[in-house]
Amino acid sequence: MNDFSIYIVFIHVLSAVLSVGPLFVLFVVLRKMQESDRQLDQSHISIFRSVVRLIKHAGHVLVGSGVLLIIIGPWPWYTSWIVMTIALMVVSIFFLARAFSSILKKFDDVEADRFSLISKLRKATWIYIILLVLMLALMVIKPTLW
Questions:
Q1: Nearest alpha carbon to residue 5 among 68, 63, 86, 59
Q2: Which of 42, 53, 57, 136 lies at a C-alpha separation of 20 to 30 Å from 101?
């Protein structure tokens, strides 16, 4: 492994941490939302949107560095764990794009059931964490699936 690939691996791992780590902060925000009144919702939603934005940008770096690692690494694109990681990545991109923003927009409706929306955000956060952990497991374990 040369110096260039070591730097790319470091960037890849750092961006993976930034893609997963901030999600756990959202559980604190969700708990605060459940305990507070509607007046504080916008500040909590602002934190939520900022975390989702950070996750998206870290994901861009993660994908870019992953592509570079495949290009310079010993694995072909059709390797089973790479194909499965890409498939899960596509699913997670669509999930991230649809799940959080649509729920967060509903907080603007004063008639909306806050606790139901908070519950949906919690569920979406767990689903996204599970998707990311599955991708992480594929990248670390590198199983031969076929």
A1: 68
A2: 136
